[in-house]
């Protein structure tokens, strides 16, 4: 199966549901598996498609890797874990961090807001 280009969507602002559908569409395309090197020791970010308003990446996090605390500003996004499990910790405002486990092929969306 070949994933259609997101440039054909013609959309500027995406809802959480739309972002999850796009993430699931790309995640279900087995042709991307050839781009993954599971022997890497650091996080990989492989661009798959983009428009002026949307970027689609294939990301690989080796076991035990971390991105550290970072801020996505006003970005909105969605991701699907294709293989394994992703442990996500998030912090909003002055609240204590929350942690969740996302298992393979479950969709998740996040609408990040700046805390500064």
Would you mind describing this structure in some detail?
- The structure is a single chain.
- The protein is mostly beta strands and 116 residues long.
- The chain has one domain.
- It contains one helix and six strands.
- The strands form three sheets. The protein has a two-stranded antiparallel sheet with strand order 1-2.
- The N and C termini lie far apart (43 Å).
- 6% of the residues are buried.
- The model is unreliable at 109-116 (pLDDT under 50).
| Biggest sheet: strand arrangement | 1-2
Helices and strands, in N-to-C order? HEEEEEE
* First-to-last CA distance: 43 Å
Structural class: mainly beta
- Give the count of structural domains: 1
What global shape is seen? globular
User: How many beta strands in the DSSP annotation?
Assistant: 6
Please give the radius of gyration in angstroms.
15 Å
Helix content: 10-25%
Number of DSSP helices? 1
Average pLDDT score: 77
User: Which ranges are low-confidence, i.e. pLDDT below 50, for 5 or more consecutive residues?
Assistant: 109-116
Work out the strand percent: 25-35%
The largest sheet is:
2 strands, antiparallel
Question: How would you summarize the topology of this molecule?
Answer:
Layout: H1 16-27, E1 44-50, E2 55-60, E3 76-80, E4 85-90, E5 98-103, E6 107-111
Task: Name the descriptors.
single chain; 116 residues; mainly beta; two-stranded antiparallel ribbon; two-stranded antiparallel sheet; 10% helix; 30% strand; globular
Offer a quick outline of the entry.
Residues 90-116 are annotated as: Disordered. The chain is mainly beta and 116 residues long. Helix content is 10%, strand content 30%.
